[in-house]
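User: quick one, sequence for these tokens?
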């Protein structure tokens, strides 16, 4: 079949890499893609949020399946657009409709969903400018540090964790009254702070049945030792060793099953990925899982370590997602560990330059025992691969153990260079220490 994948990051390159391996895939188009996705299919210069253009392309090129990488087109309702448009309603869209996408698009909606379906999460209160005083009173009932979340999408910046009550009150006012995050902070979720270890769990669901994909951990801060500013993600590893059978049983029983059942009960049709951001909170028998957030897509850069571990044909899985019989498939996962390190532009996540020529990607130079995924890359007028974003290229290695996977990634990324490229040197080290 012909497949269109929407998006342009490292996540989409990793998805394109797996989709292109499928015997069911005849032609793969990626819109808009990057210089790396060219090796998996044909890039199409198209905005994933321009539904009319996407729909037109799908009709013209006989596309049977659309896989949606990022959240923006989902939150804007691409699945509903296809379902409601004559000629497009039979196209398999992998990604939830607008209502399901609110699990990511509105923190208040997600918290309400969790409360209604008894899914463990931090206790919370949602407030608006009218109920600011209630919010301040609620803050007084909590212990430091204080967690404030803008309800809407705020480009990953809408969560504040502050140490003092004064700061929390000031920030709450700025969010609600001075629209610190614009419309996104018209509502604010105030939350209990959870202390533990974070990890990401991914679920692929047809709305009724599900597979739990490999676990992963991403590294969000720019600096070694989790210091400095937040980024889109500086690396990831999969699996997460402490997410053992006992812990994953709790995740499945307390979170995955009630989430999927909750969608059914709430009449939310959902065909796609659910990314559950979890806090593993230490308890008597190990860790208890609490949901920090839902996303309605795969994670980036988690996909770059999770997807290479999936041995099943992903297009076959997606087809069963669409048909509602995912239980007829098995998910086969490699026993190997995966380690992904993201190389970024100098200055990122602040301002940075684009257009630097990237060296070390030629056929005879590229590493043979790692996978190179492009994130922010493009080609210049000379046809050279150049930087085109803050997060530029990542290297993923699979190996029998996490230390070997990390070692291979760090050896192989040395040869891929451009002016000012930097990366974190400690990906996975925190978990290796925990394992000792
Ligand atoms: P979110 O955008 O909801 O994922 O939040 C961004 C980050 O803030 C998370 O990845 C956590 O590191 C942190 N965070 C969010 N909520 C909490 C919480 N209730 N307790 C502790 N940390 C939190
Ligand atoms: N890695 C976190 C995210 O994709 O949101």
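Assistant:
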């Amino acid at each position: 079949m012909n497949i269109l994948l929407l998006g342009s990051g490292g996540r989409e390159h990793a998805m394109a890499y797996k989709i292109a391996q499928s015997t069911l895939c005849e032609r793969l188009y990626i819109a808009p893609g990057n210089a790396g996705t060219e090796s998996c299919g044909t890039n199409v210069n198209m905005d994933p949020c321009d539904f009319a253009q996407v729909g037109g392309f799908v009709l013209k090129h006989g596309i049977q399946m659309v896989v949606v990488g990022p959240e923006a087109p989902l939150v804007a309702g691409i699945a509903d657009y296809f379902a409601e448009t004559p000629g497009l309603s039979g196209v398999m869209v992998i990604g939830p409709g607008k209502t399901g996408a609110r699990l990511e698009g509105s923190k208040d909606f997600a918290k309400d969903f969790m409360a209604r379906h008894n899914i463990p999460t931090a206790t919370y209160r949602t407030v608006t400018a009218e109920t600011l005083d209630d919010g301040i009173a609620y803050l007084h009932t909590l212990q430091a540090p204080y967690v404030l979340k803008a309800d809407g999408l705020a480009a990953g910046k809408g969560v504040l964790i502050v140490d003092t009550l004064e700061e929390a009150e000031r920030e709450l006012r700025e969010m609600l009254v001075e629209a610190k995050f614009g419309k996104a902070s018209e509502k604010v979720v105030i939350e209990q702070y959870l202390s533990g270890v974070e990890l990401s769990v991914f679920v692929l669901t047809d709305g009724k049945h599900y597979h739990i994909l490999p676990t992963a951990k991403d590294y969000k801060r720019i600096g070694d030792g989790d210091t400095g500013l937040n980024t889109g993600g500086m690396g990831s590893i999969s699996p997460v060793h402490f997410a053992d059978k006992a812990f994953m049983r709790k995740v499945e029983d307390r979170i995955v099953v009630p989430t999927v059942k909750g969608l059914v009960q709430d009449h939310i049709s959902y065909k796609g990925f659910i990314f559950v951001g979890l806090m593993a909170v230490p308890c008597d028998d190990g860790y208890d899982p609490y949901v920090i957030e839902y996303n309605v897509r795969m994670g980036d850069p988690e996909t770059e370590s999770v997807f290479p571990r999936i041995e099943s044909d992903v297009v076959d899985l997606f087809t069963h997602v669409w048909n509602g019989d995912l239980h007829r498939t098995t998910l086969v996962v490699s026993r190997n560990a995966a380690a992904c390190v993201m190389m970024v532009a100098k200055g990122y996540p602040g301002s940075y330059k684009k257009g630097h020529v990237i060296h070390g990607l030629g056929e005879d130079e590229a590493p043979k025992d790692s996978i190179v995924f492009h994130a922010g890359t493009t080609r210049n007028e000379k046809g050279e691969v150049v930087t085109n974003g803050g997060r530029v290229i990542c290297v993923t290695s699979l190996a029998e153990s996490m230390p070997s996977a990390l070692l291979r990634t760090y050896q192989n990324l040395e040869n891929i260079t451009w002016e000012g490229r930097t990366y974190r040197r400690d990906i996975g080290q925190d978990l290796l220490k925990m394992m000792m």
